[in-house]
């Protein structure tokens, strides 16, 4: 008799502790729609593809855009260049007919889409500028503020500071300083605390000049 593996023996045992109702609910759950506009217009009785088509959306962008098979095209070009086959121009008329048919299908699809404004609204929202909400941790702000107060933008001097406990390189410190200066809220507070908010930054001031650095 073949000895069974432990995991197969364990699989045959009924787990009385498991909530079967919750398991079934989890299997049948199709997930939650986070976008309020899509959620509002989504028809629960319809299939996924039909819903997406009505909203003017697609599940697979590669299929929708019709990405060409470049590998086959390259093989064909190599054969033509090396003289293994002649270029066939008869396909051009066929392709034109195919494109015209595809255009007609696309026009019909667009006319059948009753909720295409959803896709237009989403595209508009995506194109709108959204300010980054990223903020540096308080510890990093304190560290960068200390370095900038003491050394300005001399990153190599920062790297040699005794308080550089983690032995960060000058490039790592430069990245931190540049990130700190790019966050308007935190950098504005830094300038305000030092009375530099209303003052014009002098380009010749050594505090604001990056010393001995490259542009990597």
Write the layout of secondary structure elements.
Blueprint: H1 6-11, H2 20-28, H3 36-41, H4 48-55, H5 61-65, H6 70-81, H7 91-112, H8 117-127, H9 138-151, H10 155-159, H11 170-182, H12 184-193
Family: Belongs to the NOP16 family.
Main location: nucleus
InterPro entries: Ribosome_biogenesis_Nop16
What does this structure look like?
With 216 residues, the chain is mainly alpha-helical. It has a domain at 138-208. The protein has twelve helices and no strands. Helix 9 packs across helix 11. The chain is extended, with a radius of gyration of 31 Å. The mean pLDDT is 81. This is Nucleolar protein 16.
Output the radius of gyration: 31 Å
The residue ranges in which pLDDT falls below 50 over 5 or more consecutive positions are none
Structural class by secondary-structure content: mainly alpha
Largest β sheet strand count, sense and barrel closure: none
What percent strand?
Answer: under 5%
Compute the number of strand runs.
0
Mean pLDDT over the residues? 81
Question: How many H/I helical runs?
Answer: 12
Q: Which bin fits the share of residues in helices?
A: 55-70%
State the separation between the terminal residues, measured CA to CA: 68 Å
Name the overall outline: extended
Report the order of strands and helices: HHHHHHHHHHHH
Keywords: Nucleus
GO cellular component, one term: nucleolus
Pfam families: Nop16
Protein name: Nucleolar protein 16
